[in-house]
Structure formats: C-alpha cells, structure tokens
Amino acid sequence: MPRIVERAEAIAVVTASREQAGSVTDSCLMCEIIRGDVVPGAVVAETPELFVFLPRFGVRWGHVVIAVRDHVETLTEAGVARWATLCERAYFTQAALSAVLQPLRCYVATLGSGRAQPMTCEHLHTHVVPIHEPGDRPARVLTWEYGVVTAEPAEFEALASRLRAAV
Ligand SMILES: [Zn+2]
C-alpha cells in the first residue's frame, strides 16, 4: 500500500540516490531522472519532447510529473509549441488519473524554484496531482511540508500501466 513518509526522510532518500548515481551538487535532478541515473517511482511515457513519470515521492498518490526532455528553465525558453505539447500531455494525464483513481479533481501546476533544492529544480516541469479531499488546498497539497507518498516499485509500475492503458 502507498504510505506517507516525512519530508526529511524523503529528502535523505533522494540525496542518497543522487550520491549513489554520482551526481554533483549543482547538477539537475530532473536531468538525472530523464537520463536514468536516478530512478523515479515509474516511467509513464516518453516522447521525443517529454518525459512523464510518477515521482518516487509524490504529494498525493497518483502525482504525475511531466518534464520537458531538454534542460530548459522557463516557458519562454521552451517556446510556445513545446509548452502547448506539455499542456496537451497534462490534459490527457489528468483524464487518465480521473479514470483510474476517480479523484474529485486534478491540480495542474507548473512550479519550480530559481535554484536547485532537494525537492524541486529549475528544469521546466508540470505537476498533475489527483485531489481526493474536499478540503485540500493548493498551499497544503503542493508542498512536501506535510509528508509525501511513496510506494513499492511494483505498486508504482501497476499504476503507471493503468494510466497508460487509460489514455
Ligand atoms: Zn535539467
């Protein structure tokens, strides 16, 4: 069963897996995941432009991250065509999550900090997060502060497979 772990534990696991992969401090976590140096929960889809995955630590069960494959940091750098491609993928991802997990709704958010931190990075990406609690609000959902969800590799793979089948 997916389980909640505290932020500190999740950061320690991510940091350890990056060290194991030989990451240097200023490298990009998203690029490491896309290259396969750091293993996500499961890969949902890959296209020439996008890399879609279930993060090993998500803010809710079913949290999907859609990253542009190349390291770009801003929407302007990505360009409108690639942004449109990312938005289209976010649309179909929320449709798949809605069909598979039947949440109340899905949050779709493009966030990111100006500098790398253990739980975020500058590399352009969009979160699609299924919401099940009527009282959930973005400030409470889009943070690691209240813990994160993780699961066994087989559980991640099973969900990724159901999401692929639902698109
Ligand atoms: Zn990157």
Share of helical residues: 25-40%
CATH architecture: 2-Layer Sandwich
Query: In the CATH hierarchy, what is the class?
Result: Alpha Beta
Topology-level CATH name = HIT family, subunit A
Q: Can you tell me the overall shape?
A: globular
> Mean pLDDT, rounded to whole units?
92
The kinds of small molecule bound in this structure are: zinc ion
Radius of gyration: 15 Å
Task: Produce a short descriptive summary.
With 167 residues, the chain is of the alpha+beta class. It is 39% helix and 20% strand.
Written overview of the protein:
With 167 residues, the chain is an alpha+beta fold. The chain has one domain: HIT family, subunit A, CATH 3.30.428.10. Helices cover 39% and strands 20% of the residues. The protein contains 6 helices and 7 strands. The strands form 2 sheets. Strands 2-3-4-6-5 form a 5-stranded antiparallel β-sheet, covered by helices on one side. Strands 1-7 form a two-stranded antiparallel sheet. Helix 4 crosses helix 6 (153-166). It is globular. Residues 28, 30-31, 71, 123 line the site of zinc ion (ZN).
